[in-house]
Each structure stands twice: as structure tokens, then as C-alpha cells.
Amino acid sequence: MMRSSQDLVEKAALLGSLHVPGRPVVLPNAWDVTSARVFAEAGFAAIATSSGAIANSLGYDDGEYIPRDDMLAAIDRVARAVEIPTTADVERGYGLPADELIARLLDAGAVGCNLEDSDPQTGQLADCDEQAVWLRAVRASLDAAAVPIVLNARVDVHFRAWGAADERLAEAVRRARRYREAGADCVYPLGLANPSDIERFVGAVDAPVNIAFRPRGPSFGELASLGVARVTFGPGLHLAAKSWLASLAARLIQGEDPYSSS
Amino acid sequence: MMRSSQDLVEKAALLGSLHVPGRPVVLPNAWDVTSARVFAEAGFAAIATSSGAIANSLGYDDGEYIPRDDMLAAIDRVARAVEIPTTADVERGYGLPADELIARLLDAGAVGCNLEDSDPQTGQLADCDEQAVWLRAVRASLDAAAVPIVLNARVDVHFRAWGAADERLAEAVRRARRYREAGADCVYPLGLANPSDIERFVGAVDAPVNIAFRPRGPSFGELASLGVARVTFGPGLHLAAKSWLASLAARLIQGEDPYSSS
Q: What radius of gyration do chain B's Cα atoms show?
């Protein structure tokens, strides 16, 4: 389903404009049409998808085990269901060449995308140079498509617990700078959670920064004061919904009214 | 994806054996793999699907607006995700001939199905004779397939508020008897909620009876004592999950920690 190109240009520009350091845009991660509509109706300015949540809801493990057509169809359903911009988590790009990935994302109605720098199946960090080359190719495809898709480059140094703990921040900064030079609009150091590290990362990287909200981590107010530009949840909201459903199921199998405390 | 025919025969027989009047099987209605697995892990002996919930999660209104291939693919994902029997809500059969409907259901791994006797788009009750002919054709296809799929015939007299209120019970009983003669294994008077009406219906119909659990309706214990053989929820559990997610989204957009009370 092809969207109007003008509609995509406007949505992409809107999504980009929401990335304001110190006043982070909060993007809840949807996994199906129901969740996307719930978030849109709550008043969020834009939404993201979570590859892990979508894969789980369709019966796959996270990590590019889902067929790419199924993932792109799920992104399409989410993006079609809401008027607000949708940014898509597409892991490592599912083996698609950059121009085809961008064409498929635009065809699905996505106006932003996450690309990660570790192998989702082995957990190995990608070579930084190779990742920069890949991001540069994606940037060139975006520019050629003339839709300002927001390119969010994930930096998995902390998420993958790369190397020695005291070397991670420097390595994450080094990678983020390279990815920014290669054309990333936003950088996303997944697993970076310590407030002072977040502050140092934000100060060292000349780009909007995406931080994943964590239980017992910094509040939204703290993340704003640290200069963060975007907050997302990965599969967290889906996992919370799953936990809630498990508690409902536990009551139900005991013969309790499932609607009594919902 | 073809299941082993022996596996389907065993699952269908198990599902059928769970329909015991006075000791109702409780079948939570799943809409995706995540919900199906949550219900299976909670210990339910079998699960159902809800056409309305599946349609909503994929971006369609209920009432056969979803392409049948998409509905059957969703049923397939659910049935494949769990070891327990899955019975599928297939509305009016999506225009498929009886033998093709049964072949597609078995291919999807479903060992039970609901078929309803009103038009999901107009709300008009089907002609009782025509519905009986249709159910007889489905029964013949089931018998030919040699898998004892549990055929659950929905009776929509109360759900559609057919005719005068004081004539509904007699009409529902008349239809249920006809559908049972035509080969239904179970009858499902949707919208029948009053305990004395349920008791009279169960007493008048020589078949296992499925009642939809309702907020503020009879408890599981009451439904058992009324002689009910099966309890389901339609889209109710999905709607409850959606309401819960809306409350999470409302907290989140206020800047609250979404994980704090989940």
C-alpha cells in the first residue's frame, strides 16, 4: 500500500522535529493495531514499533528470526492504523540492500527506522567501520527517496556488555560519532542507564540521543535534564501487557471473574 | 503448515471430551501468539480464538471484513504456538464452501470451530432451514475428514435481539435443536444471560451448551450448576487487555513510570 509521498514527507519532518535535546519525545512501542491505536488515542505525538514485541506476538523469537515480509507487513498495519508518525525497529535490516530497505519502509508507511550495530543472533558487535558504511548507504538511499526518514543508529556497546566496563562509554561515544558522521539523525546507546554516563554521552555526541526507559532507572524528568532527545521502551510495554494478562489468566483459572479488577 | 493428522484427531477428541454439562470447560479467547501462550502457560486445557479480537489486532472491524487468508493465518499462528487444542471462531465461514472451510481449518491446526447464524455485517438472523443445511454440509465435510472437529453452532437470537423479548427463548431453543440435528456438537446462544433462561435452554436442548461469560453475569459456579458445558469470552479478554493498556498509556503520557503499577 503506497502512501502519498507528501504525507510521508510531512510525517517524517514532524517526527524529526520532535527530537529536541532536553525535551525528549516519548515514543511508546506498539506491536499491533490495537496497541498502536491505544497509544495514538492517548495523545502521543508519534509511535515506534518494537521488533521483539512484534516477533513475539506473531510467534517468533526476536533477532531477525521472523520473515522480513511478516515484519514489514506488521509495520505496515501499525503505520496505516494511526495518523501520527510511526518509526520502525528493523533490527539489522533483514538482509535487504539499503535502497530496498528504504523503499520497503516507505511502502509500509514508516517515517523513521532503528538500525542496530550488533548481530541479533550471535550478540557480536558489528565492526564500526562496516556499520558506518552501511549507515552511509542507508543515508544515501534516504536522501535519494527525498523523504526525511529519521535514521536512528543503535549503539549496542552497553547492551552487549562489550569489553571492560570502564571502556564502554568511550567506545559507545566513538561509535555514535562515526554513525552521526555517516548520516544518522539520532543515536541510541541501548543499555546506557547510569545518569552520569548518559550525561557524558550526550555531551560528547553532537546528535539527538535516544535512551530506553527502564524500571527503576532515571525518570522522564531526569532524562530531560540530562539532555536526552527521545525516550523509547523497546519490548517493555508489551512485556508489561503480557505480565498483566498472565495475572488475569491466573485469576481466571482459579474461577475468579476476569473482569473484576481490570 | 500441515499438522500430523493423528495429532489433530487426538486434540479434537480431547476438546470434545472437555464439554461436560455441569462441569464447563473454560476456554479463554486468544488473539495472537503472545495471548495464546499466556493462556496455555496458565494451565487452561484448551483455548479459543475471537474473530473480533483478531480482526481488531490486525486493523479490521469484526464481521468478516478481514480477508479470510489473514484470519486463517492468525488462527494458524495461535494453534501452532500451543500444545493444547485450539478452537477457531470463523464467523459465517468467510464464504468458503464447507469442505474447503474444514480443509483450511485443519491446515491451520484448529480442532473446533464456531459458526454463527446471523449476518455479521447486517445483523440479520439467517433463515433457520438454510443454516441447518449449511451446518449439515459442514458436518459431512468433518466426517469425511475423519477428524472429530468440535462444531459449535452459534444461535444469535438473543445477541441480535430478534423479535419480541418473550419469544426469544423459544426461538433460540428451536434453532439449537435444529442445529443439533444437523450435526452440531455444541450450541452457543450468544446473549443468553439470565440464569433461569440459561437453565431452561440447557434443559430443552439435548446438547452441550456454550455460554459467554459476562461482567456481572452468573459466576463460573452458577454456570456449572445451570448445566453449562463450555464458557467462553468472545472479545472480552482482549477488550480488558486493551482497557488496561489505555490506562497505562494515560499514566505514561502524564510522565508517570509505566512500570510502576504493572
A: 18
d(CA A39, CA A245): 18
Q: Is the Cβ of A81 closer than 8 Å to some Cβ of chain B?
A: yes
User: A32 and B32: CB-CB below 8 Å?
Assistant: yes
Question: CB–CB of A58 and B77 under 8 A?
Answer: yes
Q: Which residues of chain A make contact with B26, given a CB cutoff of 8 A? A: 252-253
DSSP tag of B244: H
Burial of B139: CB neighbours in 10 Å, binned 0-12, 13-18, 19+ = buried
Contacts of A56 in chain B (CB under 8 A): 33-34
Backbone angles phi, psi at A43, to 5 degrees: 110, 10
Tens digits of residue pLDDT in A137-190: 999 999 999 899 999 999 999 999 999 999 999 999 999 999 999 999 999 999
Taking only Cα atoms into account, the Rg of chain A, rounded to an integer number of angstroms, comes to 18
pLDDT of residue A93: 96
Count of C-beta atoms within a 10 Å radius of residue B11:
26
DSSP secondary structure of A169-226 = HHHHHHHHHHHHHTT-SEEEETT---HHHHHHHHHH-SS-BEEE--TTS--HHHHHHT
Which chain B residue lies closest to A59 (C-alpha atoms)?
A: B33
For chain A, how far is it from start to end, CA to CA, in angstroms? 37
Residues 187-226 of A with CB under 8 A from B: 213, 215, 219-221
CB within 8 A of B17, min separation 6: which ones?
none
Asked if B240 is an interface residue toward chain A (Cβ–Cβ < 8 A), one would say yes
Is residue B95 less than 8 Å (CB to CB) from chain A? Answer: no
| Model ipTM value | 0.96
Instruction: Report whether pLDDT(B191) > 70.
Output: yes
Q: Rounded to the nearest 5°, which phi and psi values hold at A106?
A: -65, -40
Q: What is the pLDDT of residues B208-257, one digit of tens each?
A: 999 999 998 999 999 999 999 999 999 999 999 999 999 999 999 999 99
**Cα B184 to chain center, whole Å?**
13
pLDDT at A3: 65
Q: Which of A221, A240, A252 sits opposite B262 (nearest CB)?
A: A240
